[in-house]
Automatic annotation (TrEMBL), chain A:
Belongs to the binding-protein-dependent transport system permease family. LivHM subfamily. This is Branched-chain amino acid ABC transporter permease. The keyword Coiled coil does not apply. Its main location: membrane. Signal peptide: none annotated. Keywords: Amino-acid transport, Cell membrane, Membrane, Transmembrane, Transmembrane helix, Transport. The keyword Transmembrane helix applies. The chain crosses the membrane at residues 9-30, 36-56, 63-85, 97-120, 141-161, 192-215, 227-251, 271-289.
TrEMBL record, chain B:
The keyword Lipid biosynthesis does not apply. This is ABC transporter ATP-binding protein. SMART domains: AAA. It comes from Plastoroseomonas hellenica. One of its GO terms (molecular function) is ATP binding. Pfam families: ABC_tran, BCA_ABC_TP_C. InterPro entries: AAA+_ATPase, ABC_AA/LPS_Transport, ABC_transporter-like_ATP-bd, BCA_ABC_TP_C, P-loop_NTPase. Keywords: ATP-binding, Nucleotide-binding, Transport. The keyword Zinc does not apply. Residues 8-257 form the ABC transporter domain.
């Protein structure tokens, strides 16, 4: 096997994996703050990308304006979803909450198909498509942009949780809601904020994927790919989510190579992360960085 | 002191959980600048009373007034904003966060700079604000003598230190009234003496009014200005430590002796 090709595959994997990492982070954010397993995470990408596409094509807004309006819309979208759908479910059994998010997922998939059709739509050209050579490897400039944006978002998360008042309040709420309240933190506001941030960040990822590959219902798959990533990293670890995303990205690309070269089973690209998921659940059910629940008897 | 509005007033507070009567018609007032202790046997309703004040429970009947204002319906975070801080009977620190971060959460409602101003860190005045808060936090850390563990994750500290960090976090709110639920439970003699000194200093030098639940009668009688005794959710007596110590009901219910020596 040529080492050049191997590097290329790993690089591709890291670029896609960084996006998985971003989506996984926003998934973990919701899970940590409000203990909701959000099966509609992929639809955040989908809705964000379609809205941005619609603003750019139908309304002919310049990219920066369309992008900002999309972010504002997604903030509202996240808050409304939390307040209208999930707040009334606080205190209900976990399974009801999960079913509600599965319902949201199906609803928004259908709604987007109804509004924008079933065919993939390309974004209007925003960045010049060039090929850049790095260390002897060919990379498209949009992919570099995608990687750059992912890294920026990760830095932003780090800053938010380490240094900002709301990030601290969110960590406090994740740990103990009643204590956080006694220190002046408004728990409903923290819940709403976590959904808003998660929706916005996912939408950014959605727009990035849309710019690179076009907008289509395939964006929802990112919501499913999140599961191997977060199970790998640990459901409640932000760092783990990023690493999990990167590993899943690389794994996919390597699996595809192995498949094409030797196995010829087809579709390994899609399936490999889920094999990994099952393996991890068997070996290390709390993930690489997850919290172990220790029961004292 | 008598004709001023008391800082905290509970008016015939009753609390029921289904058929269980945790509190029955309890009234009391805590004056500005006091150390007020609630004592009573286990299950007498002391913690329930404190939870009614902090907002964790809502009284079934009766009202809670803070600075003359009815706060019975306010959520705990709003009460914290008004100046009611608390510690918990079973330690409730954020175990994975550093001591410093734990205390910074206590400053939450005082941090004005929100997300956007935080982004414009250097021009929005958020930096100056952060410095002010750091100074305030350092002052608390110095006062409670926890300088050496400020960066340590709170979960790794010894029990006595964790109790101190929890107190520091409550003090960081700059509350007018601080509620201490068994601040000395499980401590050795030396730790108890330290804690008693911290509480009196908070009261005398920092001007905080203290509402405290404690089982150690020696400490309670030593540092409290006034004491209230609860038994089976009812108020037995209230008064200065001397009065309470001398009371027959108290001896019977709490100290468990009736011999006329």
């Amino acid at each position: 096997m040529e080492t050049g090709l191997l590097f290329q595959l790993v690089l591709n994997g890291l670029i896609v994996g960084a996006l998985y990492g971003v989506v996984a982070m926003s998934f973990v954010l919701i899970y940590k703050a409000s203990q909701v397993v959000n099966f509609a995470q992929g639809e955040f990408l989908l809705v964000g990308a379609w809205v941005c596409w619609w603003l750019l094509t139908t309304w002919q807004l310049p990219f920066w304006a369309g992008f900002l309006v999309t972010l504002a819309f997604m903030t509202l979208f996240g808050v409304i979803l939390q307040v209208v759908v999930l707040r009334p479910l606080i205190g209900e059994p976990v399974i009801s909450v999960i079913m509600a998010t599965v319902g949201l997922s199906i609803f928004f998939q259908a709604l987007m198909k109804w509004m924008f059709g079933v065919f993939a739509q390309p974004f209007p050209p925003i960045f010049p498509v060039e090929r850049v050579r790095i260390l002897g490897l060919e990379v498209q400039s949009v992919y570099l942009m995608s990687l750059g944006i992912s890294l920026l978002i990760m830095l932003g998360f780090w800053w938010f949780f380490t240094w900002s008042k709301h990030g601290l309040a969110m960590r406090a709420t994740a740990f103990d809601q009643q204590v956080a309240q006694s220190l002046g933190v408004s728990v409903p506001r923290v819940f709403a904020m976590s959904w808003a941030i998660s929706a916005v960040v996912s939408a950014v990822a959605g727009v990035v994927v849309g710019v690179v590959n076009g907008v289509s219902s395939a964006l929802s798959f990112y919501g499913i790919k999140v599961f191997p990533a977060v199970i790998l990293g640990g459901l409640d670890s932000v760092v783990g989510a990023v690493l999990g995303g990167l590993i899943v990205g690389v794994l996919e690309n390597l699996a595809q190579y192995v498949d094409a070269e030797w196995l010829n089973w087809g579709n390994m690209y899609q399936v490999a992360p889920f094999y990994a998921l099952i393996l991890i659940l068997l070996i290390k059910p709390y993930g690489l960085f997850g919290t172990k629940t220790i029961e004292r008897v | 002191m008598a004709d001023e509005t008391p800082l905290l007033r509970a008016q015939s507070v009753s609390l029921r959980f289904g058929g269980v009567r945790a509190l029955t018609d309890v009234s009391f007032a805590v004056a500005q600048g006091e150390i007020f202790s609630i004592i009573g046997p286990n299950g007498a309703g002391k913690t329930s009373m404190v939870n009614c004040v902090s907002g964790r429970y809502r009284p079934t009947e009766g009202r809670i007034l803070f600075e003359g204002r009815d706060i019975t319906a306010l959520r705990p975070n709003r009460r914290a904003g008004l100046g009611i801080g608390r510690t918990f009977q079973n330690l409730a620190l954020f175990a994975h966060m550093s001591v410093l971060d734990n205390i910074m959460v206590g400053r939450h409602h005082l941090l004005r700079a929100g997300f956007l101003r935080g982004m414009a860190y250097w021009i929005g005045g958020a930096q100056r604000e952060e410095l002010e808060h750091r100074r305030a936090v350092e002052e608390i850390i110095d006062f409670l003598e926890i300088q050496h563990v400020r960066k340590a994750p709170a979960g790794t500290l010894s029990y006595g230190l964790r109790k101190r960090v929890e107190l520091a976090r409550a003090v960081a709110l700059r509350p007018k009234l601080i509620l201490l639920d068994e601040p000395m439970a499980g401590m050795n003699l030396e730790e108890k003496e330290d804690m008693a000194r911290f509480i009196t200093d908070l009261n005398e030098e920092w001007g905080m009014t203290v509402l405290m639940i404690e089982h150690d009668m020696g400490v309670v009688m030593d540092i409290s200005h006034r004491v209230m005794v609860l038994d089976f959710g009812r108020k037995l007596v209230e008064g200065t430590p001397e009065v309470v110590m001398a009371d027959e009901h108290v001896k019977r219910a709490y100290l468990g002796e009736v011999e006329a020596a």
